[in-house]
């Protein structure tokens, strides 16, 4: 999974409650493999971190 904060449609409003921003600050691009995504989902489901709020802009990503 490619997380590109520059193409996220909720960037700004959603950043404060997004796991990427909470754990890493504001990276331009982050690539997560399936294991990493499952680990973040498990942490979010347990209430330890906020969920990934990424909402890609389909026009920007093709």
Provide a brief overview of the structure.
This protein has helices at 19-24, 34-45, 58-61; strands at residues 2-4, 29-31. By secondary structure, the chain is of the alpha+beta class.
What structural keywords apply?
alpha+beta; two-stranded antiparallel ribbon; 3 helices
Treating each run of at least 4 consecutive H or I residues as one helix, how many helices?
3
Q: How many strand units?
A: 2
Report the sheet-strand fraction.
5-15%
Contiguous runs where pLDDT drops below 50 for at least 5 residues: none
Widest beta sheet: strand line-up: 1-2
Largest sheet: number of strands, sense, barrel closure: 2 strands, antiparallel
Bulk shape: globular
Specify Rg, calculated over alpha carbons. 11 Å
Distance between the termini: 15 Å
Supply the number of structural domains. 1
What class would the helix/strand composition place it in? alpha+beta
- Provide the helix percentage: 25-40%
* SSE succession: EHEHH
Integer average pLDDT: 78
Structure description:
- By secondary structure, this protein is α+β, with helices and mostly antiparallel strands.
- The chain has one domain (2-61).
- It is built from 3 helices and 2 strands; from the N terminus they run βαβαα.
- The protein has helices spanning 19-24, 34-45, 58-61; strands at 2-4, 29-31.
- Strands 1-2 form a two-stranded antiparallel sheet.
- The longest helix is centred in the middle third of the chain and has 12 residues, at 34-45.
- It is globular.
- The protein starts with a strand and ends with a helix.
- The model has no long low-confidence stretch (mean pLDDT 78).
């Amino acid at each position: 999974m490619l997380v590109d904060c520059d193409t996220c449609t909720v960037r700004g409003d959603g950043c404060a409650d997004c796991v990427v921003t909470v754990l890493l600050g504001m990276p331009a691009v982050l690539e997560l493999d399936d294991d990493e995504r499952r680990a973040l989902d498990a942490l979010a489901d347990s209430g330890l971190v906020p969920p990934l709020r990424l909402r890609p802009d389909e026009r920007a990503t093709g």
